Amino acid sequence: MRILVVNVNTTAAITEAIGEQAAGAASPGTEIVALTPAFGAESVEGNYESYLAAIAVMETVRAYPEPFDAIIQAGYGEHGREGLQELFDVPVVDITEAAASTAQFLGRTYSVVTSLDRTVPLIEERLHVGGLSARCASVRASGMAVLDLERDPDAAVEAIAEQAARAVEDDRAEVICLGCGGMSGLAERVVERTGVPVVDGVTAAVTIAESLVRLGLSTSKVRTYAAPRPKRVLNWPPKLG
Amino acid sequence: MRILVVNVNTTAAITEAIGEQAAGAASPGTEIVALTPAFGAESVEGNYESYLAAIAVMETVRAYPEPFDAIIQAGYGEHGREGLQELFDVPVVDITEAAASTAQFLGRTYSVVTSLDRTVPLIEERLHVGGLSARCASVRASGMAVLDLERDPDAAVEAIAEQAARAVEDDRAEVICLGCGGMSGLAERVVERTGVPVVDGVTAAVTIAESLVRLGLSTSKVRTYAAPRPKRVLNWPPKLG
Amino acid sequence: MRILVVNVNTTAAITEAIGEQAAGAASPGTEIVALTPAFGAESVEGNYESYLAAIAVMETVRAYPEPFDAIIQAGYGEHGREGLQELFDVPVVDITEAAASTAQFLGRTYSVVTSLDRTVPLIEERLHVGGLSARCASVRASGMAVLDLERDPDAAVEAIAEQAARAVEDDRAEVICLGCGGMSGLAERVVERTGVPVVDGVTAAVTIAESLVRLGLSTSKVRTYAAPRPKRVLNWPPKLG
Amino acid sequence: MRILVVNVNTTAAITEAIGEQAAGAASPGTEIVALTPAFGAESVEGNYESYLAAIAVMETVRAYPEPFDAIIQAGYGEHGREGLQELFDVPVVDITEAAASTAQFLGRTYSVVTSLDRTVPLIEERLHVGGLSARCASVRASGMAVLDLERDPDAAVEAIAEQAARAVEDDRAEVICLGCGGMSGLAERVVERTGVPVVDGVTAAVTIAESLVRLGLSTSKVRTYAAPRPKRVLNWPPKLG
Amino acid sequence: MRILVVNVNTTAAITEAIGEQAAGAASPGTEIVALTPAFGAESVEGNYESYLAAIAVMETVRAYPEPFDAIIQAGYGEHGREGLQELFDVPVVDITEAAASTAQFLGRTYSVVTSLDRTVPLIEERLHVGGLSARCASVRASGMAVLDLERDPDAAVEAIAEQAARAVEDDRAEVICLGCGGMSGLAERVVERTGVPVVDGVTAAVTIAESLVRLGLSTSKVRTYAAPRPKRVLNWPPKLG
Amino acid sequence: MRILVVNVNTTAAITEAIGEQAAGAASPGTEIVALTPAFGAESVEGNYESYLAAIAVMETVRAYPEPFDAIIQAGYGEHGREGLQELFDVPVVDITEAAASTAQFLGRTYSVVTSLDRTVPLIEERLHVGGLSARCASVRASGMAVLDLERDPDAAVEAIAEQAARAVEDDRAEVICLGCGGMSGLAERVVERTGVPVVDGVTAAVTIAESLVRLGLSTSKVRTYAAPRPKRVLNWPPKLG
User: Fold this and answer.
1) Is residue D100 exposed (0-12), middle (13-18) or buried (19+ Cβ within 10 Å)?
2) β-pair partners for E74
3) Which residues of F103-128 are buried (b: 16+ CB within 10 A; e: fewer)?
4) Transmembrane region positions (chains A, B, C, D, E, F) (predicted)?
5) Backbone φ, ψ for residue B195 (5° rounding)
6) Cβ pairs C/D, distance under 8 A
């Protein structure tokens, strides 16, 4: 089984980290292919960048030349999952939804801890679209930008653990979803600080994608995610480079 | 005052019709500039096309060389309004939200009648994001594709009036929002058939945009719609043609 | 176009202030007529006074001898808008709903800052009835009574600005609606303190009423707001004076 | 214990019927006093009439010269209960809320069957304000006006039983609340037709009012229902006759 | 009229206290029979114990040899009320729902103050199932275990009054429901501290059960609470002792 | 890895069918152990039987002598999952929640088709408790009792396929969850009839349980699902046989 894990930003180091994380959770026999979009922002922290990423992810998968069995969109709180479901027949898993869906099996409520305050609304909307808001205790921001997470992982881990602890104590969260990239030691530190299970979206998404493939299930094409109707599309996709 | 009214599809005839409709509702002294996106689908009827339109509309406005006072996104149930609000300082009005917001001043409940069944979920999501779902009685599809509306306006008017009548009788709607383009005689026919007020999104959006400008109000930049942070954006915007 | 702007209390000085505010927002050619109810409380700060105001406003408009094109009910969080919609054919705009509806075009969430704590529930109910609760972050009270606002405007402005700042910081509001009368400098002070757009209900209502008239739209009479059925009404309206 | 049961319309025959119904449900030692408002419509079937009734009921209770222990507002889906709670210290029970609250102890869901279609929204709003919507399966109209119920009780009973049966079968109601006056045999006929418990608002309200008095409980005066603040009220109450 | 009041734990002293409380609220002619389950935990503070109590209460009522007119399940936030409704024809009243339903007649919002933090979710779920969440301001825990309430009533009263005061001030509750056993002086102390009405579930349930019996109303058997279908039940009920 | 799959009824043939279905979905290296409760009803179709099953399942797992890695509660819409989470440290997966959670990755909305009408409310409550209601289009009953499904599978398949088709057409479901036992050919027939993905709760639960174990995740013990406090439990568990 081959699963495409598509980063939403154009920073190759992040794609690589995501790919390693995904591979670590994959079953024997599952090949993880991590892809970087051919255009877009070096980090995605707002609606404009997220809409751009949505389209970039779709075109990146469209350009992938080999067959594949499932797609994971590896951005937290991003636009675009519905478009992938229209364009392809294989299952599509968004990591925000994968994390929340997994968290719901572990505790009565969960919170998400993310990077910047401005991405909180994007995550809230994605959880709503996913039908996963009812048990969400809160979405909290650590105040660290995506690229800062890479630059100063120690400070990032501390800021995130602090917000996780407040989610458990003040917002009554019983599980924490990490809404940010794969820093080494992050999950361990949050578990240690809060005593609650910590869910990572990428690894959760890998197990869900594998499960759907094994069960022979894929996207319903009956209405919302039917393939686009044949029509003229002007000046698209763009010629890059 | 200059208001940009941006079509979401690349069919120039539709842009022209929208522009005329908008101009008809504008106050003396308001200049309406109707724009067609430089790339994208000839009609927008699903998530992939809508995400593509979202980005195309943003780039089209970015490329517009003159100053302007407000932006109207003239597509029903489309993605992208939040991105425009990040990129620009002037007010941004989505026609789906403009119609619903106006309808709420006219009756206790409203229904939207749109083109294809597959666009119903997109409209429902947009109304949710806009906080305008509570008084929405239903979103109904006429079964006519966007371009069919142009090709056989008589059949389209009949199919839309039929769904409007069912919304009033079965779903207890008290106002109808037209979720499709500017066919001549459409609103009149629906009023005649149902006896309830009929709201057109484009004209409603023009009056709202003018009002916001006159009141000196514009998008809050404090959190969700703050300008994108300065960063490297790879291979974008594309070179077209 | 003539728009009736009806105060809900019997304090003529407040009627005058509301009238000036409304006139300042009106288009050339719009005549604003500000009316004081013939009976009722000198300020409206609770359910009994608000129910009384509801009826007083309706009778006041009924007694107005000239033709008019729209009605604005200029009280924050008051009962009665639905009754006006039954009695008259022209559009009716409630300032609580006008402010919230306008705020939703400016930010993802809004808060209302009002006078006394006891009027908070009235405003919350009015927003619910208006279908405008989903994006309401909070309704906050400054603790100043309506007539105190007139007597000590400096203290009032400070108390209101303080609550507005807390709404933006603690409740994540991105827009502030002013749920209290027209003190000079209030909006400016709140903008200065919070950095977010500030919406005044009276001016917002004027632009909405004008827009509905220009678009040829009025109240749906199909069900909820149908004219009262002909019947015997005992001892009403009362003989005053 | 003395309980005031206040009709909302000015038809004395209806007041008398309500009073008899209430007396039939009262405990030994409870005196039921049925009151007709001194002004208002002969039947209440819409917002204008209901707002007028709200004020008329308040003034009627205010003018009652003897002490009393509780107030029942005996109109279905009417405005005003909150005002009574402000003006008086004794418990206030609205029959719409009494019926729904009682029905919730009898089945998982309930429906209300009322007179005219135009009163459905009023009942829905009252149930919302009362926090009693979650288990409401539907509010259905029989199409009979209030005074028609008096004039042709056989047809009324049949029309109401028909809607009750549809509520049970189509809307999955498990209890029926009768949202209309006390026709002889009505409850029996609906029980016979549907096989589900039938709740009458007036009798339910009597038992609730008695219970509150016996438990020594009354309206909370801490915020929403605090007594009106002392202030000047102009031209009110009116001089009648 | 005979009402069974069934404790959910196996501590006889608590059964006795509940029985006295119930008897104090009963009308002349009502016999209160307080029952202790034949198996289960000495206090119920979590899901396992509550599910066990649910079954124990049902079997305890099944084993009761005399006729009876109503059943009160006297545990706060416990499972099982729906099962009792299936097994018996007489009305069943849960004290959590009785308290909330009564509180809604007294103030716009209510809070529940209970024993341990871990029982908060159970109460929240029960209020949801009862359709009584909309006006619930909060469920707060005093941190005192059920048996501690018996052992150190003074400290318990203080801890509960403290949370009640915070509910009124911070959560805007206007009524307090006591979600814990009958300590002498508790209600008085909370009224004194907060100034709001305080509702006790057991006494509220007695008046509701009496009212349903007097009105001739009982559980709807049309769907959810129909009697169990005849079938083989293995090894149940167990032989005790 | 060993997963316990616990039937909720005492019919051994159903336990066997569930076990085979589970084994068919398990990864190599996963051992499925199917258990029948030691007491309870031969089929579970209502609240009393479901509460009894809840306790029976808990005691059955408690009595299981070997170590295990996860528990699946294999009944549709049953009580008890929260109790298992308190009693054990390993992950607990309810099949109702597993099916819905899986369906949400496949389509915008899903419907459940179950056996008898009386179990619909139980499934709706379980989906609510699981935070999985928002995308649930409907829960429909085929009218076939659980044991009838075994006796006349052809009629059962036809009745279920019919309701599935109506869910897709009338309720706009895009995925079907089968809320009833493992009849051969059922899923295939429903896919064939409706063209939408069909999710079986048992197989979905197996993949979720395996995923949680592989990811090293288990139930949060911080609040709702903390182990029961040490205390005296009277006469329990019962001596059977």
Assistant:
1) buried
2) E7
3) bbbbbbbbbbbbbbbbbbbbbbbbbb
4) none
5) 75, 10
6) 138
Cβ-nearest to B135 among C131, C172, C174: C131
E140 lies in the same domain as E48: no
Query: Does residue B52 belong to the interface with chain A, where contact is any CB pair within 8 Å?
Result: yes
Cα separation, E160 vs E165, whole angstroms:
9
Residues E208 and E185 in one domain: no
Contact between chains at F51 and E51 (C-beta distance less than 8 A):
yes
Contact (CB, 8 A) for B37 and B7: yes
Q: Is C129 on the interface with D (CB under 8 A)?
A: yes
Cα(A112)–Cα(A103) distance, rounded to whole angstroms?
Answer: 10
> Are D41 and C239 an interchain contact pair (Cβ–Cβ within 8 Å)?
no
A134: which DSSP letter? T
DSSP F23: H
Q: Which residues in chain E touch residue F12, judged by CB atoms under 8 angstroms apart?
A: none
Q: How many domains does chain B have?
A: 2
Q: What is the CATH number of the domain that holds C64?
A: 3.40.50.12500
In a domain, D131, yes or no: yes
> Do residues B86 and B173 share a domain?
no
D-chain residues near C41 (CB < 8 A) = 228, 231-234
Amino acid at F100: A
Residues A123-155 have pLDDT tens digits of: 999 999 999 999 999 999 999 887 887 788 888
pLDDT tens, position by position, F8-38: 999 999 999 999 999 999 999 999 999 999 9
C101-128 mean pLDDT: 97
In a domain, D223, yes or no: no
User: Of all helices (H) and strands (E), which one includes residue F73?
Assistant: strand F70-74
Question: How would you label B71-82 residue by residue, b for 16+ Cβ within 10 Å and e otherwise?
Answer: bbbbbbbbbbbb
Neighbours of F2 (CB within 10 A): 15
Q: Do D224 and E107 touch (CB under 8 A)?
A: yes
Contact criterion met (CB below 8 Å) for E159 and E178: no
Please state the φ and ψ torsions of residue F31, each to the nearest 5 degrees: -100, 125
Verify that C22 and C79 share a domain, yes or no: yes
Q: Which of E39, E225, E226 sits opposite F236 (nearest CB)?
A: E39
Looking at chain D, how many residues does it have?
241
DSSP structure class, residue F119: G
Place of tokens 């704590």: C117
Question: pLDDT per residue over B68-99, tens digit each?
Answer: 999 999 999 999 999 999 999 999 999 999 99
Euclidean distance between CA atoms F203 and F181, whole angstroms: 12
Using the 8-state DSSP alphabet, how is residue B119 labeled?
Answer: G
- Residue among A16, A50, A51 nearest A36 (CA): A16
Least confident of B188-192, C98-102, D119-123: B188-192
What is the count of residue pairs from D and E with beta carbons less than 8 Å apart? 144
Q: CA C39 to CA C48: how far, in whole Å?
A: 13
Q: Does B220 touch chain C (CB under 8 A)?
A: yes
Within this chain, do residues E85 and E120 fall inside the same structural domain, yes or no? no
Cβ within 8 Å of A, F 164-183: 168, 172, 174-175
Strands F175-179 and E110-114: unpaired
Chain B (90-119) residues lying within 8 Å, Cβ to Cβ, of chain C: 91-93, 97, 101-102, 104-108
Given B128, B133, B217, which is nearest C106 (Cβ)? B217
Which domain range does residue C25 map to? Answer: 2-95+203-214
Same domain membership, residue F146 and residue F133? yes
C201 interfaces chain B, CB cutoff of 8 Å: no
- Same domain? D163 vs D140: yes
Kindly list the partner chains of chain D, i.e. chains with 3 or more CB atom pairs below 8 Å: C, E
Residue A86 · residue B46 · CB < 8 Å: yes
